[in-house]
Amino acid sequence: MSFQVQTRTALVTGANRGIGAEIVSSLVTHGARKVYAGVRSAEKAKALVERFGDVIVPIEIDYEKPATIEAAAKAASDVELVVSNAGVLRTADPFADDALKNLQYELDINVFGLLRMARAFAPVLKKNGGGAFVQLNSVASLRSFPPFATYCASKAASYSLTQALRDTLREQGTAVLSVHPGPIDTDMGDHAGFDDSDPPLVVAEGIVAALAAGDFHLFPDKMAKQFGEAYAGFAAGVIDADPAE
């Protein structure tokens, strides 16, 4: 299903920096009528409001506080596009002392956070004509990297849920997009020690284009495109195939 962002009302979580802030910028540039900037506290959206004015509406969304998600779904009742961008990364291999603790935290934010967002906003999108739901996954959802094993596990789970959302929300006319970036030049990327990363703009502009094209997968940057090319056959034959056939 194709979805055009022009004149639409959108919501982006983790909107105050990195990929989230760039997504907000691209949505405004491409003509979004209103963008709810999902942040943990309103002051974190100050720079976006100063830059774009009244088109930005700060709204509290903290994946660690499910009540904020439910409240946001009631407050942002005109939303037609939801971008679930917020996420966390902890560096832990399977035998690290803090591996279990880190995995639990990453699952709570990266997986349960996604599920809470989808359950809260799916009825809103349905009421507003279907719209679109975008989930920021990762190339790490397809291949595990030992130094980030717990993060990779959480993203594999979120990708699995995204597939289920695509198939389920199709019935109400909601397009779903699964975004799989590689290393991106953000604070998270710096924390992970990545060099030669692509800018967040490639992700943001890729989302706008992929929504318009009606795609399910987006592999936006240099590394991600390599993953996407290698994965294409499996995706076409298994992920995108009709299980009833």
From TrEMBL:
Enzyme class: oxidoreductase
GO molecular function: 1-phenylethanol dehydrogenase activity
Domain of life per record: Bacteria
InterPro entries for this protein: NAD(P)-bd_dom_sf, Sc_DH/Rdtase_CS, SDR_fam
Annotated keywords: Oxidoreductase
EC numbers: 1.1.1.311
Record PANTHER family: 5-KETO-D-GLUCONATE 5-REDUCTASE, ALCOHOL DEHYDROGENASE, PUTATIVE (AFU_ORTHOLOGUE AFUA_3G03445)-RELATED
Family, per entry: Belongs to the short-chain dehydrogenases/reductases (SDR) family.
Xref: NCBIfam families: PRK08264.1-6
Protein name per the record: (S)-1-Phenylethanol dehydrogenase
Gene expressing this chain: ped
